[in-house]
Amino acid sequence: MLSRVFTKHGIEHRFAGPDSMFGIHFGDLVPTNYRDWKQTDSELYTEFAMNLIKHGIMLEPDSREPWFICESHKDVDLAWLEEIADRSMAEAIAAK
């Protein structure tokens, strides 16, 4: 669902880690060290994350930190996340 949002907005992205505790990186590789991470678009990620927070989705705005999804998150929660993520990414791109 997040991949659909990023693809819609033309953002190259990679997921890292287990499904329930994953990281998101904007770029063409999953970073394995600090130099790799510096090659990602962490500024866009931070803007995106801060927009998510502004719209009520709580996460760590540092792209080196994981997201957490668990069984208690219902389909309606994930649909809402997709809607807010789409809006937040559009705002982040407009702010660049």
Task: Please give a handful of descriptors for the protein shown.
48% helix, 3-stranded antiparallel sheet, PyrdxlP-dep_Trfase_small, Aspartate Aminotransferase, domain 1, PyrdxlP-dep_Trfase, 96 residues, 3 strands, Glutamate-1-semialdehyde 2,1-aminomutase
Describe this structure in words.
- The protein has 96 residues and is α+β, with helices and mostly antiparallel strands.
- The protein has one domain: Alpha-Beta Complex (Aspartate Aminotransferase, domain 1).
- The chain has 4 helices and 3 strands.
- The chain has a 3-stranded antiparallel β-sheet.
- Helix 3 packs across helix 4.
- It is globular and about 35 Å long.
- This is Glutamate-1-semialdehyde 2,1-aminomutase.
- InterPro entries: PyrdxlP-dep_Trfase (IPR015424), PyrdxlP-dep_Trfase_small (IPR015422).
CATH architecture: Alpha-Beta Complex
Describe the main β-sheet briefly. 3 strands, antiparallel
Q: Strand order across the biggest sheet?
A: 1-2-3
**Beta-strand percentage?**
5-15%
Question: Outline of this structure?
Answer:
This is Glutamate-1-semialdehyde 2,1-aminomutase. This protein has 96 residues and is an alpha+beta fold.
Topology summary:
Layout: H1 2-8, E1 13-16, E2 21-26, H2 34-38, H3 42-54, E3 67-68, H4 75-95
Antiparallel strand pairs: 1-2, 2-3
Helix pairs in contact: 3-4
Protein name: Glutamate-1-semialdehyde 2,1-aminomutase
InterPro entries: PyrdxlP-dep_Trfase, PyrdxlP-dep_Trfase_small
Organism: Oleispira antarctica
